[in-house]
């Protein structure tokens, strides 16, 4: 397992500045996406995947993951919305060529939301149908994963496990989304066997993000669960400063360093 840091953790930094922070912290990779000053150019990724990948080569750090949204936000063109599959298939083909050209091992997307007129079951069914088709795009089985999240249709470990059983999809796993909704860490642990990418941030029931010393996630236990499940991928530090679920109030740099040190202490015991 190796460390990464998410570029959207630092909304006022350019991509080059995020890479500089990562290097200063001794972290050898970053996660990239479509948000804030570090945003990649979605149109370039879709229109010129190789050219978009070439722009990442001068950063001086690796890229551990690319977070792709098919639409403008998590609702637009989401996986559970009927009528979006053909456009999403076209986009995913370009996204995967971008990831291949850039040496990016994983790409994560969101599972979709409960759209107007749908039940949770309706959303789950449409999303599973979409994912089965998306996973047939060349390269998708090796790179594509989904992140179950608060306010998606997939808000419980049981629902996520059913999606895995229905599609074979792997996960961008973030325990915080489940813990914030009141699930115990041990209820999330079985999902570790299906992780392709992992996000790390502290949380507690009712709070998607908490200061490191004030949350309930047991990170030594979490890391041990990942190791025992055979996980060898990136551990992306994802403390954020966003107007989403009350995550505006933490010192992101301090929380990033505290999590980095906790992971290093576990990975390299003295």
UniProtKB/TrEMBL annotation:
<feature type="domain" description="Xylose isomerase-like TIM barrel">
    <location>
        <begin position="22"/>
        <end position="241"/>
    </location>
</feature>
<dbReference type="InterPro" id="IPR036237">
    <property type="entry name" value="Xyl_isomerase-like_sf"/>
</dbReference>
<dbReference type="InterPro" id="IPR050312">
    <property type="entry name" value="IolE/XylAMocC-like"/>
</dbReference>
<dbReference type="InterPro" id="IPR013022">
    <property type="entry name" value="Xyl_isomerase-like_TIM-brl"/>
</dbReference>
<protein>
    <recommendedName>
        <fullName>Xylose isomerase-like TIM barrel domain-containing protein</fullName>
    </recommendedName>
</protein>
<dbReference type="Pfam" id="PF01261">
    <property type="entry name" value="AP_endonuc_2"/>
</dbReference>
